[in-house]
């Protein structure tokens, strides 16, 4: 399973770089290649396309104009043909209907990212008085492809909680269902659905997906696999720890410390940064070989690797400046575009890594991380408490770090006899007001009622919950192991038990769709929960971290014959996680008792802060 | 890192990965047999790697990357190599040890182990041994090492793949990955074109029917009015003639009664003293005549006649005769005609030039492989005996290519010089030009190789060749179009400039270094590179002109 290849395949189909099925090859392609095309997108498909392709790729397919379908300032160019790629949302359909009533271009190919309602299709057909439409297709690229094994739903609003923290907003549920079914169709998988037993959110989503699959059995009628793929729907609340820990691998660190939005990183906060580096593209899918190789490296290895990279660049430069023979010349000529890209790339990554390094130093992140890991993995209440108290007083540690530590403490020692969260919250309360406008105390209270011991139902995991250090002490013995990365995410353990066919039915029940025959009747058809799956799609409701993405990539790389893709409503960092908890506490969704004393937080300041971030 | 021993059985290991695997394989059932030792051993490992971590974070970054500009070449010794942990290898943490139920699957086709047997995986070729493993793939029967048989597939008794009735068997990578559908990345696509056409057709038919009916009326109206005009065009029609026209208008279709309508059906405004009622002469409905909302309009009949491709009046009175037509009638009758007309109208200059570019591009693309072929022949023969025929061929093809490229270049430049008023068209123009420049750069560069090649070949015999140098100059003049640079080009050139200056800086550093190390023999080639760089920098600066400096 490869999300990127499937998505790129769809894009190639849309842009016409795929030869039409079976039609006599090169000549027709050659002519089509030259025909100027206009690509019309909507808000959602703009993100989808920008995640997996580049402008120069589109240019090379004679797409010389890209615009949004809702842009009404476009002018008539009826010699050109148009490719429309939109999500079948009411707004986009309306815009398309208006477009076709008075067509600006000579002909139209329509591509929808998902199943379009019959009534909508009829409306479009009735608006096509000019018979301008020549092709209508549904393609299922309805997901944001972040890495080849990582996808995101791309919700317009980050909040997914409805009237209660265990219910969905209608929009988030619908969008997640559509994304998941699109992923299933893009990857051609008809899965067995399993979900977190203690999560209504997971169960609801499992139900929706299962319903859609049953609605249209012929659509999901794929080549039979040796063992059915598993769609595993998990709930963030069962592992609130991972988003609170500082990650130490490249992609994850960048997201935690600087933030990645649709593959873009804003570096304008760095003083004296070169203008071309103010916003950089950091893509796990497009053309940045260095990043693709180093995105999962830990910070120490990253330093060494980027050093090598610079050396390699310097050697290359040396070779290239010294053009003596024709061979040199030829090599230079051949390398030239690659070489120029390399030059840009070197300065990009060096800037990025230097900034990360600066932040680590300036914000005392090594000390913070060490304490975080101790909270997550050890049982040493008094010592940890003392350390937190010291750090809370220390001026160079950021407010974010302090909130994370107190939050971890709250989760970790909730059941400890000497639990002193109120004292810590009081200390936190005396900190400077937070620049990004969230209330740490409220967020932590909210966290405990969202994902506290009772909500997590830790009984399921017994003593082997997410707090246990790398279980037997062996698990962590990787080349990159160190004190800052002791903690093993719950996902890693969950996947391990799933892949070994040892996942407990009680904790992760199989969604009963009433259709599949039971184990006793036809053992071959795999309601056999002990059969080991080979393809797994994991979806975490409420956010996934790049650390978890790394775990999945590691399993994919190191486990022959296993293919896992990971997705979520959003890729989060600790700020997103805490901010969202703070927001839901404001909406009164979670029954914590917000401290009335702290009133500096107003809606205005939070909006301003959002913009700063 | 070099000394790793298993904490349980003390077997020595080369890598942590191997130890990890060993622990999984040999000791996965043992839990804390030796709790204390393990723990202390573990903490030692952690302490060790922690020291490394600290060192790498603090020292590497402050030393080597504290400064933002790393391209100065000053830190080229391998001081930090000791910090690298080796490749961050993926663990097989989650990897299942297959439960295999393959006794029933045939083993007749199994390859026999012979001495010095190597893994059958093409890129592996490890000698097969107890250490590396020696396993038959249950499907193809060939012998492989451990690593290349970590896959599971369902096979029948005859060792054929069968997802329904097969049993789990251990197979090789090739068998696993060549099973049908493994490399299928074509997701589901549903084609709705036929459904769409079916939905559209009744609507189109209806539309056509309407259009025909209205068109007939319009034709009739125009011909009646035309014949009325031809009786006597006059200059300004007197009242009685206008009454006559009114009568003709009313014959075409029954007019809607004024009393039936209170609001204009098109713009929904209320009729009153200022918003007066009018009748559309084609459908007879009451509409307003507001020119802003364009609900209906008086159109001169000869214009209408031209749109419909029919004969209108031969002469027009000074005050032209026109007729009122509502928006909806106009759309029904004319918009489809207009659409088809626009589609087949002659190409605007921008697109005409684009078509020429496409044609030339195809010529270049089809000639280029031939040129590269001859170039290779020449290069093989370089220095010894210059093949006259090949040289002539190459020169000829090159000349042809150069000419085509020059043509391509001049058309793309004239395309970029077209003055366009509409923003969309300007964007189109920019993008076409951008792609053209890119195409030219890629395809022109190989052409540069030939003069150099010939020059160095001729140097051996007759000294420098003038004509090829001249050509090189000509060539330079149009490699990068200089007129009216677009923003993207400026950005592009600036980037080139940065690269070149970085290189220059680097090379100067190397010259200095060589001087210090008294390696005088290294200096001349470096200096000649420097000169070349200077030239290149000058050229880019020249191209950029005042744009070289960011505003
Ligand atoms: Zn051992
Ligand atoms: Zn095999
Ligand atoms: Zn092998
Ligand atoms: Zn009106
Ligand atoms: Zn009318």
Characterization of the model:
- The complex is a heterodimer of chains A (613) and B (551).
- Chain A is of the alpha/beta class.
- Chain A folds into 3 domains: 3-140, Sec1/Munc18 (SM) protein, domain 1 (Rossmann fold); 146-238 and 489-572, Sec1/Munc18 (SM) protein, domain 2 (Rossmann fold, 3-Layer(aba) Sandwich); 240-487 and 600-613, Sec1/Munc18 (SM) protein, domain 3a (Syntaxin Binding Protein 1, Chain A, domain 2, Alpha-Beta Complex), CATH 3.90.830.
- Chain A contains 22 helices and 14 strands.
- Chain A has a 6-stranded mixed β-sheet with strand order 6-7-14-13-9-8, sandwiched between helices.
- In chain A, α20 links the parallel β13 and β14.
- In chain A, α9 (250-257) packs across α12 (326-362), α11 (299-321) runs antiparallel to α12 and α15 (399-412) packs antiparallel against α16 (421-429).
- The longest helix of chain A has 37 residues, at 326-362.
- Chain A is globular and about 75 Å long.
- The model of chain A is unreliable at 20-30, 459-481, 517-527 and 590-613 (pLDDT under 50).
- In chain B, α8 (349-380) runs antiparallel to α9 (388-417).
- Among the domains of chain B are: 100-180, Zinc/RING finger domain, C3HC4 (zinc finger) (Herpes Virus-1, 2-Layer Sandwich); 221-344, 2-Layer Sandwich (Herpes Virus-1); 349-454 and 484-549.
- In chain B, strands 1-2 form a two-stranded antiparallel ribbon.
- Chain B is mainly alpha-helical.
- The longest helix of chain B is centred in the middle third of the chain and has 39 residues, at 193-231.
- Chain B starts with a strand and ends in a 7-residue tail after the last helix.
- Chain B has helices at residues 16-27, 35-63, 173-177, 193-231, 239-252, 301-307, 327-344, 349-380, 388-417, 423-461, 466-479, 487-516, 523-544; strands at 4-5, 12-13, 135-136, 143-144, 151-155, 167-171, 189-191, 277-279, 286-288, 296-300, 322-326.
- Chains A and B meet through α1, α4, β2, β3 and α6 of A and α1, α2, β5, β7 and α4 of B.
- β5 of chain A pairs antiparallel with β7 (189-191) of chain B.
- The complex binds zinc ion (ZN) (5 copies).
- One zinc ion binds next to loops of chain B.
């Amino acid at each position: 399973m490869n999300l990127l290849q499937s998505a790129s395949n769809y894009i190639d189909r849309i842009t016409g770089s795929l030869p039409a099925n079976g039609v006599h090859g090169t000549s027709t392609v050659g002519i089509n290649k030259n025909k100027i095309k206009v690509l019309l997108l909507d808000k959602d498909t703009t993100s989808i396309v920008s995640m997996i392709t580049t402008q120069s790729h589109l240019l090379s397919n004679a797409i010389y104009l890209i615009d949004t379908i809702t842009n009404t300032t476009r002018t008539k160019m009826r010699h050109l043909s148009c490719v429309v790629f939109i999500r079948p949302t009411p707004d986009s359909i309306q815009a398309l209907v208006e477009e076709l009533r008075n067509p600006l271009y000579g002909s139209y190919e329509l591509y929808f990212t998902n199943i379009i309602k019959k009534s909508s299709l009829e409306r479009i057909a009735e608006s096509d008085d000019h018979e301008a439409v020549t092709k209508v297709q549904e393609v299922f690229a309805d997901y944001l492809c972040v890495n080849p094994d990582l996808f995101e739903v791309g919700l317009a609003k980050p909040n997914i909680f409805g009237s209660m923290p265990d219910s969905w907003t209608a929009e988030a549920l619908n969008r997640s269902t559509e994304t998941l079914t699109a992923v299933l169709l893009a990857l051609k998988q008809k899965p067995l659905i399993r979900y977190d037993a203690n999560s209504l959110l997971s169960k609801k989503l499992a139900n929706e997906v299962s319903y859609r699959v049953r609605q249209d059995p012929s659509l999901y009628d794929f080549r039979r696999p040796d063992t059915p793929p598993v769609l595993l729907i998990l709930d963030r609340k069962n592992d609130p720890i991972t988003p609170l820990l500082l990650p130490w691998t490249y992609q994850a660190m960048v997201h935690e410390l600087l933030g990645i939005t649709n593959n873009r990183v804003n570096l304008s906060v760095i003083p004296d940064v070169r203008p071309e580096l103010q916003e950089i593209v950091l893509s796990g899918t497009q053309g940045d070989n260095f990043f693709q190789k180093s995105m999962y490296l830990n910070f120490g290895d990253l330093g060494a690797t980027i050093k090598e990279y610079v050396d390699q660049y310097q050697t290359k430069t040396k070779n290239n400046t010294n053009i003596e023979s024709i061979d040199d010349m030829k090599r230079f000529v051949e390398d030239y575009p690659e070489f120029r890209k390399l030059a840009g790339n070197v300065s990009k990554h060096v800037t990025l890594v230097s900034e990360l390094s600066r932040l680590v130093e300036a914000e005392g992140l090594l000390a913070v991380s060490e304490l975080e890991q101790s909270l997550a993995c050890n049982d040493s209440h008094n010592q940890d408490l003392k350390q937190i108290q010291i750090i809370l007083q220390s001026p160079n540690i950021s407010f974010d770090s302090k909130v994370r530590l107190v939050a971890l403490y709250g989760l970790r020692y909730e059941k400890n006899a000497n639990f002193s969260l109120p004292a810590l919250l009081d200390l936190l309360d005396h900190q400077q007001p937070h620049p990004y406008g969230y209330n740490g105390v409220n967020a932590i209270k909210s966290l405990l009622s969202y994902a506290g011991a009772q909500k997590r139902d830790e009984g399921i995991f017994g003593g082997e919950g997410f707090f246990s250090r790398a279980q037997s002490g062996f698990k962590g013995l990787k080349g990159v192991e160190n004190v800052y990365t002791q903690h093993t995410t719950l996902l890693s353990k969950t996947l391990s038990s799933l892949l070994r066919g040892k996942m407990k039915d009680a904790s992760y029940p199989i969604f009963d769709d009433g259709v599949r025959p039971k184990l006793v009747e036809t053992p071959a058809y795999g309601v056999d929960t002990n059969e080991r799956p080979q393809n797994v799609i994991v979806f975490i409701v409420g956010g996934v971290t790049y650390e978890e993405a790394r775990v999945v990539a590691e399993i994919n790389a190191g486990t022959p014959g296993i293919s896992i893709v990971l997705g979520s409503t959003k890729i989060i960092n600790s700020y997103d996680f805490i901010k969202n908890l703070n927001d839901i506490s404001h909406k009164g969704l979670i029954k914590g008792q917000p401290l009335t004393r702290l009133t500096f937080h107003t809606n205005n300041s939070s909006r301003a802060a959002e913009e700063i971030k | 890192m070099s000394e790793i021993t298993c904490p349980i059985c003390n077997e020595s290991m080369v890598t942590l990965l191997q130890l990890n695997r060993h622990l999984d394989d040999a000791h996965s059932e043992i839990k804390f047999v030796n709790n204390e030792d393990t723990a202390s051993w573990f903490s030692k490992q952690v302490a060790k790697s922690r020291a490394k971590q600290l060192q790498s974070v603090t020292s590497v970054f402050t030393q080597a990357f504290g400064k933002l500009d790393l391209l100065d070449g000053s830190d080229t010794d391998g001081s930090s190599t000791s910090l690298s942990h080796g490749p961050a290898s993926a663990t097989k943490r989650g990897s299942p040890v297959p439960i295999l139920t393959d006794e029933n699957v045939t083993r007749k086709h199994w390859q026999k182990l012979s001495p010095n047997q190597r893994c059958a995986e093409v890129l592996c070729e490890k000698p097969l041994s107890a250490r590396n493993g020696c396993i038959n793939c249950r499907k193809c029967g060939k012998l492989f090492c451990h690593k290349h048989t970590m896959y599971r597939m369902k096979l029948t008794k005859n060792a054929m793949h069968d997802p329904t009735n097969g049993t789990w068997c251990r197979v090789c990578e090739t068998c696993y990955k060549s099973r049908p559908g493994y490399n299928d990345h074509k997701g589901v696509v549903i084609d709705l074109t036929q459904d769409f056409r079916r939905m559209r057709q009744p609507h189109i038919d209806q539309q056509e029917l309407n259009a025909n009916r209205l068109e007939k009326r319009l034709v009739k109206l125009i011909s009646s009015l035309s014949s009325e005009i031809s009786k006597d065009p006059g200059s300004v029609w007197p009242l009685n003639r206008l009454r006559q026209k009114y009568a003709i208008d009313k014959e075409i279709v029954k007019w809607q009664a004024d009393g039936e309508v209170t609001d204009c059906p098109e713009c929904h405004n209320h009729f009153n003293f200022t918003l007066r009622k009018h009748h559309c002469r084609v459908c007879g409905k009451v509409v307003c005549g507001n020119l802003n909302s364009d609900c209906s309009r008086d159109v001169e009949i000869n214009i209408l006649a031209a749109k419909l491709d029919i004969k209108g009046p031969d002469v027009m009175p000074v005050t032209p005769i026109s007729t009122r037509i509502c928006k909806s009638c106009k759309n029904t009758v004319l918009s489809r005609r207009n659409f088809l007309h626009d589609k087949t109208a002659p190409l605007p200059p921008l697109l005409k030039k684009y078509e020429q570019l496409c044609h030339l591009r195809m010529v270049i693309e089809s000639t280029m492989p031939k040129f590269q072929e001859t170039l290779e022949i020449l290069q093989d023969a370089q220095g010894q005996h210059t093949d006259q025929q090949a040289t002539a061929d190459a020169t000829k093809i090159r000349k042809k290519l150069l000419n085509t490229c020059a043509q391509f270049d001049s058309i793309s430049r004239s395309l970029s010089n077209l003055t366009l008023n509409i923003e969309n068209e300007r964007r189109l123009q920019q993008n076409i030009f951008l792609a053209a420049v890119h195409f030219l750069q890629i395809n022109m560069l190989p052409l540069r190789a030939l003069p150099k090649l010939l020059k160095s070949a001729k140097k051996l015999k007759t000294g420098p060749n003038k004509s090829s140098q001249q050509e090189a100059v000509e060539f330079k003049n149009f490699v990068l179009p200089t007129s009216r640079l677009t923003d993207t080009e400026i950005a592009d050139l600036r980037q080139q400039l940065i690269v070149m200056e970085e290189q220059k800086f680097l090379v100067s550093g190397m010259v200095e270094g060589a001087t210090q190390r008294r390696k005088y023999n290294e200096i001349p080639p470096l200096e000649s590179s420097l000169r070349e760089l200077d030239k290149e920098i000058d050229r880019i600066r020249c191209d950029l002109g005042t744009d070289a400096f960011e505003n």
